[in-house]
Amino acid sequence: MKWVASFYNPRLSRSPVLYDTTLRDGEQTPGVAFSPEQKASIALALEEAGVRELEAGFPAVSEGEREAIGAVLESCSRARIYVLCRARREDIDLAMRCGAENVAIFTSVSELHLRYKMRRPLESVRREALDALEYAVEHGLRVSFSTEDATRTRPDVLTSLYLEAEALGARRVTVSDTAGVASPQAVAHIVAMLRSRLRRAAVAVHTHNDFGLATANALAGVAAGAEVVATTVNGIGERAGNASLEEVVMALEVLYGVPTGIRLEKLGEISELVARCSGIPIHPGKPIVGRNAFTHESGVHVAAVLENPLTYEPFLPELVGRKRRIVLGKHSGRRAVAAKLEEMGLEPEGGGIRRLLEEVKRLGEGGVRVTEDSLLRMAGDGGGAG
Ligand code: MN
Known about the structure:
Blueprint: E1 17-20, H1 36-49, E2 53-57, H2 63-75, E3 80-86, H3 89-98, E4 102-108, H4 111-118, H5 122-138, E5 142-148, H6 155-167, E6 172-177, H7 184-197, E7 202-207, H8 214-223, E8 228-231, H9 245-255, H10 267-278, E9 295-296, H11 299-307, E10 325-326, H12 334-343, H13 350-365, H14 372-382
Parallel strand pairs: 1-2, 1-8, 2-3, 3-4, 4-5, 5-6, 6-7, 7-8, 9-10
Helix pairs in contact: 1-2, 1-10, 6-7, 7-8, 11-12, 13-14
The structure holds manganese (II) ion.
The site of manganese (II) ion (MN) has 6 residues, from loops.
């Protein structure tokens, strides 16, 4: 048994395609810039882990970015690599010059964006966007078409634009919650609305974490019929970030019961790779990959976990290439001290453990971290273990 999920969870019948945008939206995290070598190594790690689609970057950004996209295209052989383009012919040209065969074209048609960002009427933006789409299709590119801020775009405007995009050859349209302002119910509603109108084009969801709902929104979109889900490793990205790859994958596998095709045991090391390359450390409480995700201190929990970890763990940490940790502190119990001593190759015995536990709790209460070294010293001081 590797996990026991709630039997109240609904099941999904199929897994969505994972579209990872760590190299584009993830890189748009304030202060983050990946070198071409870093982009290539992250892309390769994702491909080896079984991620089928990657967004490598935004060619219009700079010469260095185009070089990095080239490096990604060179290092990956199986994953489908997309690049981001504004709805302009010159951006499509730049994408082709990088060697890209798949483009994600975006525009903006929400009232807010039309008024303050595009500063043009809907009709002009619409024409320009569809022109860029046609241009890309004519040049043999596979096109994913999206509007930023889709979750604040009027349903008639969004639906008619996406129907036109489909008719002109877009293979996919994306529901982007660019400002992170949609609830899971809203995302599900928009996806279902589009799914009921579109015929061939796939629907993707791209969600942001401004309310801590990016993963929930991504999964709500998938459950409502989205065939593609955008993620980033560690959930990095603009502002509060995106839906995290490791959360979405593990939720699909464990909670919804669908195989994603991802080599789950790779998730831990990919998370560390991206933390190193981005300079953004993993929060200890980060689900799936955080330092505390499989760490136990409370005496009640530790005693049960030693009998069967699934009493207090969502799944076994080895599944994602992680290890369980038992730490000693104020909340520790006898079983934890005994287990720790055993782990350190010491032979615990009754009275000594009680004395050590008192000492551990006293230190823990004072806010001191009880390390293996200090436990060893304590054990050496008064016997009880040897
Ligand atoms: Mn985004």
